[in-house]
Amino acid sequence: MKVTVLSSYLSATILTGMVGPGYAAVLPRTDAETIANFGRIGICMSYFGAGPTEKELAPCSTWCPTQNPGSDPNSVGCKGPTVAREDLDPSTIFKDDDGNEWTPGECICDLAPATAFLDVVIQGLSKLDDVLCAVVLTAVTTLVQEGISAVPGGASITAASKAVEGAKTWAENGLDAISFFGDWIGQSCNIHDFSFNLDDVFQGLTDAPDSVGTSLGCFKAGKVC
């Protein structure tokens, strides 16, 4: 499940069945044409993984102000599919001018409150420093695939524990894998490309024993998650 906003990736309920198999026949060929066309009908380019956010949200920045005059064109989002990529109809999967894969999504507008909530969660977690960033990806994949006993000591075990703490906090607050890797690990460590399945690794981190790390709790208003 994926929702992209200008500064974050947030969970949301998705409109399914929005695009049919015959849609590919009418898609423009270039990104500029796609963005211009989608901006007229409220559809966006929902990328698989951490794609180019500016391009993904460009149609929504045009579409949303026409639907809500006076709204902030920067507080927009793109709702993607609720199913895994391999379960999508192949005719609804495309590549942009740079070869990045995407599928049509639905523009959503006025996401300022959602963005503010994500910022609260991020502030509750300590930012990963350069030492932890250097080992975090290896640490989390080793933890998920082989268990905590296989993670080397020192910075690696600290990074793994921080990642488990973060993932469990993310999950408790209703945020997803895309947001976790894109907005926290990605932003903290300046990482934009992940060579593993984000959902699988995120699930593995949330399933890790509490002895490795626990959630920092609910950050929603009223502490109801």
Order of helices and strands: EEHEHEEEHHHHHH
Biggest β-sheet: count, sense, barrel? Answer: 6 strands, antiparallel
Mean pLDDT: 78
Please state roughly what percent of the residues sit in beta strands, choosing from under 5%, 5-15%, 15-25%, 25-35%, 35-45% or over 45%: 5-15%
Coarse structural class: alpha+beta
Oligomeric form of this entry?
single chain
* Low-confidence regions: 5-26
Q: Whole-Å distance between the termini? A: 18 Å
Q: How many helical elements?
A: 8
Helical percentage = 40-55%
Shape, per Cα inertia axes: globular
> Rg from C-alpha positions?
18 Å
**E-strand count:** 6
Detail the topology: elements first, then pairings.
Blueprint: E1 3-5, E2 8-9, H1 31-38, E3 43-47, H2 53-67, E4 76-79, E5 94-95, E6 101-109, H3 112-124, H4 130-133, H5 136-146, H6 155-172, H7 177-189, H8 198-206
Antiparallel strand pairs: 1-2, 1-4, 3-6, 4-6, 5-6
Helix pairs in contact: 1-2, 5-6, 6-7, 6-8, 7-8
Report on the structure:
Helix content is 40%, strand content 11%. It has 225 residues and is an alpha+beta fold. Strands 1, 2, 3, 4, 5 and 6 form a six-stranded antiparallel sheet that branches. β1 and β2 (8-9) form a beta hairpin. α1 (31-38) runs parallel beside α2 (53-67) and α7 crosses α8 (198-206). The two termini are 18 Å apart. The relative contact order is 0.15.
